[in-house]
Amino acid sequence: MNPPAWRVRVHCGLAIIGWPAHVGVMSRIPLDESPASRFAWERYKGFLRWSALAALATVLAALAIVWQSFGADWLHMYIAVALAAGFIVLLTGALMGLVFLSSGAGHDEAVQDWSEPND
Question: Which of 28, 75, 93, 105 is within CB 3.0–4.6 Å of 37 for a Cys-Cys bond?
Answer without folding.
Answer: 105
